Amino acid sequence: IDYTEGRGWHDARLMPYGPLTLDPATSVFHYAQELFEGLKAYRQSSGSIVAFRPYANAARFNRSAARMAMPELPEETFVESLELLVQTDRDWVPTTEGHSLYLRPFMIATQSGLGVNYPSRTYKYMVIASPAAAYFSGGVKPVSVWLSQDYTRAAPGGTGAAKCGGNYAAAFVAQRQAVENGCDQVVWLDAAEHRYVEEMGGMNLFFVYGDRLLTPALTGTLLPGITRDSLLTLAADLGLTAEEGRLSIDEWRAGCASGELTEVFACGTAAVITPVGSVKGVEGGWTIGDGGPGKLTMRFREELMGVQYGTRPDTHNWVHKIC
Ligand code: PMP
After folding, report:
1. Does ligand 1 have an atom closer than 6 angstroms to the CB of 38?
2. Where in the chain are all domains bearing CATH 3.30.470.10?
3. Distance between CA atoms of 29 and 44, rounded to whole angstroms?
4. How many angstroms is it from 57 CA to the middle of ligand 1?
5. How far is CA 215 from CA 40, 200, 232, 318, in A?
6. What pLDDT, on a 0 to 100 scale, did the predictor assign at position 117?
């Protein structure tokens, strides 16, 4: 769908996947005025194809748009664009349990010109779809994480809460450092003190203290994950206390040493729920619990996937039927 200032959204169309032709001076190439979303369509046991909380993605898309000085897209239009694509590509929704059709709505600034003193007056919103298997090849094998001391993902007042490509471009160097140090993923700390845990590469984090859960609060420097939000609700359903707050790396290490901090897991659309097994990057690192997937981690994973794949009741109306 195209957008032109003064005219609004126009020319919605469905077209075969293929290259785009853009002027080399298109502003997105130079000034990164871009944002995206990620969600999945699941084939449920009943045969229906559903999306998980697409209106939550639509709302986040528009919050990102506001931060990036880009036009908002009506939530209905956002959801209809997904419905139309999934209905057309329904045969691409995998039948294998645990697989899904990943949907990538995104928006780019399309005005040409090398001047930097404007937000673009034209934009293009697109959605692409791709069948997806498990995100980590190890399935629910715990991941090892690297606490980044050299880089920061987001500073107060920056774009950390927006899902814009620039955040990811700036993160690659830290992710590469994590891999070079034998870890699977980078974990970001706060910009001011490099002490408080924010989030993992493409996932939010939860810390389990027995029957109490703690997740870093939404301070404006981390992405408000839809999986994170869903788990805060599911935790209450399971009779657990879930808090949003602050956790320093010292508290993380001390909790593991004393045995009070029993599990740590990461959550997001792509990776669902993934246990964190070990930490590196400060003072030699440490292991979480016995390094294996924790009981509550696996319980949350089952509950969430149960709702997504239709084997558990959808008590919060999270599942949106497409066809
Ligand atoms: N943080 C970052 C940086 C991410 O890219 C993602 C994936 N969108 C998440 C957290 C998790 O968000 P969600 O649960 O909405 O997928």
Report:
1. yes
2. 2-132
3. 39
4. 11
5. 23, 12, 9, 21
6. 72
Dump the DSSP string for 246-277: --BHHHHHHHHHHT---EEEEEETTTEEEEEE
Determine if ligand 1 sits within 6 Å of the CB of residue 227. Answer: yes
CA of 199 to the centre of ligand 1 (A): 9
Alpha helices by DSSP H, listed for the chain, are 27-31, 54-67, 75-88, 165-180, 226-237, 249-258, 295-309
ipTM of the complex, rounded to two decimals: 0.99
pLDDT at 168 over 70: yes
Domain with CATH 3.20.10.10 in the chain: 143-309
Q: Whose CA is nearest to atom 2 of ligand 1?
A: 202
Query: In the CATH hierarchy, which fold is given to the domain comprising 143-309?
Result: D-amino Acid Aminotransferase; Chain A, domain 2 (3.20.10)
DSSP 52: E
- And the tokens for 294? 């924790």
CA 154 to chain centre: 15
Which structure tokens are listed for 95?
Answer: 């039948």
What is the spatial distance between Cα 159 and Cα 171, in angstroms, rounded to a whole number?
13
State in words which class domain 2-132 has: alpha beta
pLDDT digits (tens, 9 = 90+) for 68-93: 999 999 999 999 999 999 999 999 99
Binding site membership of 226 for ligand 1 (Cβ less than 6 Å): yes
106 alpha carbon – ligand 1 mean position (Å): 15
The amino acid occupying position 119 is: P
Structural contact between residues 287 and 164, judged by C-beta atoms closer than 8 angstroms? no
Q: Could you tell me the pTM of the whole model?
A: 0.97
236: confidence class by pLDDT, cuts 50, 70, 90:
very high
Query: Residue holding tokens 């001390």?
Result: 254
Three-state DSSP class for 37?
coil
